[in-house]
Write a structure and sequence with these properties.
By secondary structure, this protein is mainly alpha-helical. The chain is 62% helix and 5% strand. The radius of gyration is 30 Å and the shape is elongated.
């Protein structure tokens, strides 16, 4: 859905053709979520089918131009005004991996956490470097400002993930300590008496 509405937002600025929409989408998001031309034209086809856009002539190079309709503008306004739904979050591969690693035979979940933490911190350093490069010069246009917002969101996400991994490791340590200090199970009266004996005190042989 973000591709659909992203293209509508770009078309609200004026008629555009598919390849230009792809270029502007990637420029606005810093190529964080690259598109292929097939995705763009498939989405444009659906938007046209739904009455959100129409083909409106062509440019001097023969590219078919698309224009947003009133229904498309209404859809775009609704998208901007409606909060992103967080009640049904998308599946997160890392959360699923750690959930499945708990108790999995032959898997040391601490190794899984350490490996992921290393990767996450490296990604955060890379994003921070990109942010520093973007701030070396004051953002000159809206595309540069938009990219700065995207890269800062990626930094915050990586920071939150690193904190969550620390929390997971801490919880596992507490769990291991709790298990280690649990008292031994009571063997019960039958086990405490030992092997059954005859009245003379001899152990009854098994036949």
């Amino acid at each position: 859905m973000s591709i659909r509405h992203g293209l509508l937002a770009l078309l609200e600025r004026g008629p555009r053709y598919g390849s230009r929409l792809r270029t502007e989408f990637e420029s606005r998001t810093g190529s964080t979520w690259p598109l292929n031309v097939g995705q763009v034209y498939t989405t444009l086809s659906r938007l046209e089918r739904d009455g959100m856009i129409v083909q409106d002539g062509s440019d001097d190079a023969g590219h078919d131009l698309y224009t947003i309709t009133d229904d498309g503008r209404a859809e775009l306004r609704n998208w901007f005004e409606t909060p992103v739904d967080r009640t049904s979050p998308p599946r997160d591969e890392l959360a699923i991996k750690l959930a499945m690693a708990v108790g999995a035979p032959g898997v040391d979940i601490r190794d899984v956490i350490q490996s992921q933490r290393h990767h996450t911190l490296k990604a955060m350093q890379d994003y921070t470097r990109l942010k520093a490069q973007a701030l070396a010069d004051v953002p000159a246009n809206r595309d540069e400002v938009a990219w700065l917002l995207v890269v800062e969101q990626l930094i915050f996400q990586a920071e939150a993930e690193a904190r969550w991994l620390d929390h997971c490791e801490s919880r596992l340590v507490r769990l291991a300590e709790a298990v280690a200090t649990e008292p031994a199970a009571d063997p019960g009266p039958a086990a405490a008496r030992g092997p059954a004996q005859t009245p003379a005190g001899r152990t009854r042989s098994k036949r």
